[in-house]
Amino acid sequence: MNEPRIIVALDYPGAQSALQFVNRVEPRACRLKVGQELFTAAGPQLIEQLAQRGFDVFLDLKFHDIPHTVAQACKAASKLGVWMLSVHALGGRVMLAAAREALQGFKQRPRLVAVTVLTSIKNEELGEIGVSGKLNEEVRLLAGLAHDSGLDGVVCSAQEAPDLRKQFGRKFCLVTPGIRSARVAEDDQQRVTTPRRAMENGADYLVIGRPITQAQDPLKALQEINQEIAKTGKQK
Ligand code: C5P
Q1: Global pTM?
Q2: Atom of ligand 1 lying closest to residue 187 CA
Q3: pLDDT value at position 120?
Q4: Termini Cα distance of the chain
Q5: How many domains does the chain have?
Q6: Range of the domain at 99
Q7: Residue 215 falls within a domain, yes or no?
């Protein structure tokens, strides 16, 4: 069986609605992402429940704080048995290194990925947050920082994946949100890509939320995207 490439973003308001979806899927069909909304509502107990059911869990809390605080948060996340966790590359080199260092010694070390530039941000908005360069340059810079700090990979738009793959090689993990099939609304995402194109661009994992969780038939939506990915021949 191929390794699941889809990470479903469980952006639900609480454990009950999240589990309604989870009860219908199997770990071989997808991994699961718990983000700020669900974690704040349901807490570590839900993470443990999902892990017990055999799912790989991506805890996407995008830690961004002083190095000591982030390091301690990463340790706490590792104790929950998560498969992947995220920090913000904008936290800087010392924070990234502290996060990486904190995971040392865990028997099942989670993969550590850094968010570069959120996929909801467009080029025109960068100036307002003090970034004078172009979006792709900023992404490359932050990805380089993550790479040099020993992180396993980055969260980026699939549009940036070919460039990052070329720069940082095969082993650098590229996790891409902002995935939309051609016929679906973009919601608040700006730098969007279809599942097929994301795979062809070199993404390792596709984070997909609303196109699956808010579909009339979420299971069918997941199956269809898995089939689309299989057609690219890029399964691991
Ligand atoms: O519903 P949708 O497919 O847009 O969900 C995307 C998910 O990916 C959300 O949970 C969001 O927090 C997350 N994400 C993102 N952009 C990033 C990092 C994470 O959209 N750069």
Answers
A1: 0.94
A2: 4
A3: 86
A4: 9
A5: 1
A6: 6-230
A7: yes
